[in-house]
Amino acid sequence: MTSHLLSAGDLSAEHALTILDSAEQMYAIQSRPIKKLPTLRGRTVVNLFFEDSTRTRSSFEIAGKWLSADVINISAKGSSVSKGESLRDTALTVAAMGVDALVVRHASSGAVQRITEWVDCHVINAGDGTHEHPTQALLDAFALRRRIGDLTGKHVVIVGDLTHSRVARSNVLLLNTLGARVTLVAPPTLMPAAVHTWECATSWDLDEVLSGKAAGDVDAVMTLRVQRERMSGGYFPTEREYAISYGLSPRRLSMLSEDAPVLHPGPMNRGLEISSAAADGPRSLVLDQVKAGVAVRMSVLYHLLAGAQPAPVLEEAAGL
Amino acid sequence: MSVPSPNDDDSYGRRRPRKTVLLRGVRPLGGEKVDVLLRDGLIAELGPDLAVDLAANDVEVIDGHTASGSAILLPAFVDLHTHLREPGREDTETIASGSAAAALGGFGCVHAMANTTPVADNAEIVEQVARLGRRAGLVDVRPVGAVSKGLAGEELAEIGNMARSAAAVRVFSDDGRCVSDARLMRRALEYLKPFDGVLAQHAQDPRLADSGACAHEGELSGKLGLPGWPAVAEESIIARDVMLAEHTSSRLHVCHVSTGGSVEVIRWAKSRGIEVTAEVTPHHLLLTCDLIAGYDPLFKVNPPLRPAADVEALRAGLADGTIDAVATDHAPHAAQDKDHAFADAAFGMLGLQTAVGVLIESMIKTGQLDWAGLADRMSVRPARIGRVSGHGRPIAIGEPANLTLIDPDASWSVVPEALASLSTNTPYAGRTLTGAVRATFLRGQATVRAGALVPAAEDQAVLA
Question: A-chain residues within 8 Å CB-CB of B217?
Answer without folding.
Answer: 193
